[in-house]
Structure formats: structure tokens, C-alpha cells
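Researcher: Let's try something more involved. This one mixes different molecule types, so please make sure each is placed in the same coordinate frame as the others.
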Amino acid sequence: AQSVTQLGSHVSVSEGALVLLRCNYSSSVPPYLFWYVQYPNQGLQLLLKYTSAATLVKGINGFEAEFKKSETSFHLTKPSAHMSDAAEYFCAVSVNTDKLIFGTGTRLQVFP
Amino acid sequence: EAGVAQSPRYKIIEKRQSVAFWCNPISGHATLYWYQQILGQGPKLLIQFQNNGVVDDSQLPKDRFSAERLKGVDSTLKIQPAKLEDSAVYLCASSPRRTGSTDTQYFGPGTRLTVL
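Model: All components are placed in one shared frame. Result:
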């Protein structure tokens, strides 16, 4: 069965600092991997997805993620945090289907 | 292009009452999903429709939950009777292509249900 683990339920950074949100996956076959963002009282919005093309995936709002098979990781990064990045971030995995399995989420706080 | 619409946005009921949620997907999207998101957890798939047929309802508590998608467009999710543990946000999502395509899912704003 597939699963994802998000390390750290809360991450705090200063505005302008590097953002690093961690995601590790478990899958017996090559996975598809996703990062979604959820702002307060809103639905989920796709940030980026990996579908077996380039291992470095660029998404919206300056975010990117790198698929590392050897480490079974798909960490999300942004070089410089902005106040508007404060939200909950979810990593998700699917295998050969469109059924998404989500992690438990990481809440990002950005301090001025 | 209009997004996924859901109503109501908030609902408070007492346990053992019934409740229904409505979802209108993006026009032309064939696949529709209902997720349950309990506080502090990621969304969990309850049911997936392809047009008006059920593709996967393995995680739906069928003794109390039901869902339909008449005419392959709008969908309703019903809980009867509700339990305290049903308190959650219910998210609807849709995607344009056929089942198995791993296409992007577009989410609605959700309905926050509180069961007292």
C-alpha cells in the first residue's frame, strides 16, 4: 500500500528565509507525487506534481520539489518565504490511478 | 472558468440528525470525488464517481453515509444518522479526464460539519 509521511506538523520561518517542508513516500511501484496548499477556510490548490518526467518540479508561487528515489523523498522548497505563504501544505501520492493518499499536513508560519 | 462549488459552507447539527451536502463540479469534468478531512489530518477519500457511476466507495461508511451523482453532474453526500466523529470538513473535487489518468484534481472550499 502507498503512504506518505510529512515530518513536522508545524514549521516556522522568518520572511525571506528558506522554506523546506519534508515528505517521504512509500510505494512498491513508481509513484506520482503531489504537493497541495490549503489556505484558511479554502479548499486545496495544487502547487506542483511529479509524474515521472523531470525529477526537479517547479510549481506555482516560486515553490519547487525534487523527487529522490534513493531517499524516497519529495521535499518542497522555496528560496525566500513570503507572508502570503502561511498555510497548510499537504503531500500526496498516487500509483497508476487518480486516487490520492494524503499526508497529515504541515502548517507553515511566516514571521516578519 | 468557475471552480468547484459546495454548499452549505458550514453546518451544525446534533448527533443522530441527518445532513446533506451539495457539490457542483467544474463544467465538463467527468470524475468527482468526496473527501473527509478531520481536524489535524489529511483528506481521506470517501467516494469517487466517474460520470454517474461509482468507481470506488471502499472507504465510505455505508451504514450511515450515502452519495449520488445524478445525470453525471451535481452530487450530494448524505449522513444519516450523524455521529460525533463525523465532525470534519467535507471536500468535493473534480477532474476532467477518465478514471486512471492521474489528472489534476480541483477542490471546492469544503463544508465544515460540526456534530454536537
